Amino acid sequence: MPEGGASIPNTAASPAGGGAPDTAPAAAPDTAPAAAAGGGRTAGPEPRGTTAARRTSLLVTLLLGGLTATPPLAMDMYLPALPEVTRSLHAPAATVQLTLTACLAGMAFGQLVVGPMSDRWGRRRPLLIGLAVYVVATALCAFAPTVELLVACRLAQGLAGAAGIVIARAVARDLYDGVAMARFFSTLMLISGVAPIVAPLIGGQVLRITDWRGVFVVLTVLGLLLTVVVWAKLPETLPPAERHGGGVGEALGSMRRLLADRAFSGYMLVGGFAFASLFAYVAASPFVMQEIYGASPQTFSLLFGLNSIGLMIMGQVNGRILVGRVRLDRVLGAGLAVVVVAAAALLVMALEVFGEAGLVPVAATLFVLMSAMGITLPNTQTLALMRTRHAAGSASALLGTTSFLVAAIASPLVGIAGEDTAVPMAVVQLTAALVALGCFLGMCRPWNGRTGVKGGGV
Known about the structure:
Blueprint: H1 50-68, H2 70-76, H3 82-88, H4 93-121, H5 124-141, H6 147-175, H7 178-192, H8 194-209, H9 212-233, H10 248-260, H11 262-292, H12 297-322, H13 328-350, H14 359-385, H15 392-410, H16 423-444
């Protein structure tokens, strides 16, 4: 097992230039990179020590899954407490929802800083600094006396927590390519998908014995534990020879080249608006399910966990069944189509076109929408990151920033008409899904066959 500061060499990535290529690089058919096992081996007879290498690979995978679980932990454990926060701090629901917006905005802009930093100084140092600041900011949230200070602390929490999100994706790109990367992202979704399941459940149970401040105490402890384990066990995956020596100008140049690639920008926008549709549900569901449809905090937590299970299952269907058999762009297109149909159905129910809808049909439709995200989000990230190699941190930052920024703009809109209607949530979800589908068809142009992957080819 490599020591915490050891570097894992990359042997799996296909060569690419410094900027985004015109077409996606070809991927190795089904080869899990030796780098993920900490070795530098290629496919062939297993040498001695392979078992230990596999343990290292599992450990790195679990840690990356923990880092990608940072957003759902920071958001979802807090969701059942939102109505209580409005009462405790004597603030309107729209203002309290700004605590979600602030955290999202922080995660968005923080990635723009941390991503290029990780390309220049490696993955470990920016990650550890970000995690340490995240722990401090989360602790301060527990003592915020006003909603304004809570919003400020959540902004700081998001800025620091961005390190885990962006660097986890960059590390995955360091280690994997093509089909292997698509499967790895699906595996990460399985691991990180546990967080949305347990987070609202934990939050609901914490609220039984304490108030919303106790939720942030639990988040602080979890963040501290993750920081210690990352410091002790996560190796460096970007060798010094592959790091960028330039400063801000070179980082901006890398991002400019990435944005000039139409397909990369298309996948970036697809992921951003798909995530906005998902987060419209995250921001509005505590009020919609509890205040409009009468679910208790515990029932809401169970429904939220069930939706996360659907997302997780479809992520595994994507990674274990679809990837390698069906082109990724076709799977992505099918996922977007399901999201559009589900969002349209939610709008019909919210408008009561066929009469008043109850909790069960609304919850079932949200389950379908969330499950479709399990094949939409990992394939979007894979197809985008396949178009870059030497600026994985910057590419990951652009993907994450777009997703969180669009979601941060969308989340306040779901409460614009108050707490007594689900129409704004459904409108935001449908609009975002239609924009995502439009970007996919207009910018990625999947019919030309140059950006999809089937098996190991492009």
